[in-house]
Design brief:
With 137 residues, the protein is of the alpha+beta class. The chain is 25% helix and 47% strand. α1 runs antiparallel to α2.
Length: 137
């Protein structure tokens, strides 16, 4: 029998989402990392990307996250996201429009364009599109 890890995803003004999972793939600042039962304790930052959870039945759940923190313990993964959205809830057309606006700002930046903000908007939109399309890593 495989052991599972308890996953909790939290964000301000959003109900907590919980799973018993076989594995969690997280978008860390230094790259994608995998968490399974027995993982070494870890506190790390997250970047905009897709959080992929394989639940205890083997079903995959995709979430777009906009960054935050992950606190990993041997039996639990706590994801403290700035915001998150289930891939099944993403308005893909709206996300594509947001991606296009961000790309346009980056292609032809105006003097008042906040390039870093436009890049983050692009990363968030890309994460939402991937989560909606059930695209993992």
């Amino acid at each position: 029998m495989s052991q599972t890890i308890r996953v909790e995803i939290c964000a301000p003004e959003k109900l907590k989402t919980e799973f018993e999972a076989q594995e969690v793939l997280c978008p860390g600042e230094d790259g994608i990392f995998s968490v399974r039962y027995g993982h070494t304790p870890l506190l790390t930052t997250l970047v905009p990307g897709v959080l992929l959870i394989q639940d205890k039945a083997g079903e995959e759940h995709f979430f777009a996250t906009s960054g935050g923190f992950a606190e990993i313990e041997p039996e639990k993964a706590l994801i403290l996201a700035d915001s998150y959205e289930a891939g099944t809830d993403v308005d893909e057309e709206r996300a594509k429009q947001a991606r296009e606006r961000a790309e346009q700002r980056l292609r032809k930046p105006e003097p008042e364009t906040d390039v870093q903000r436009a890049e983050l908007a692009l990363y968030r939109a890309a994460a939402r599109i991937k989560a909606a399309g059930r695209v993992g890593y």
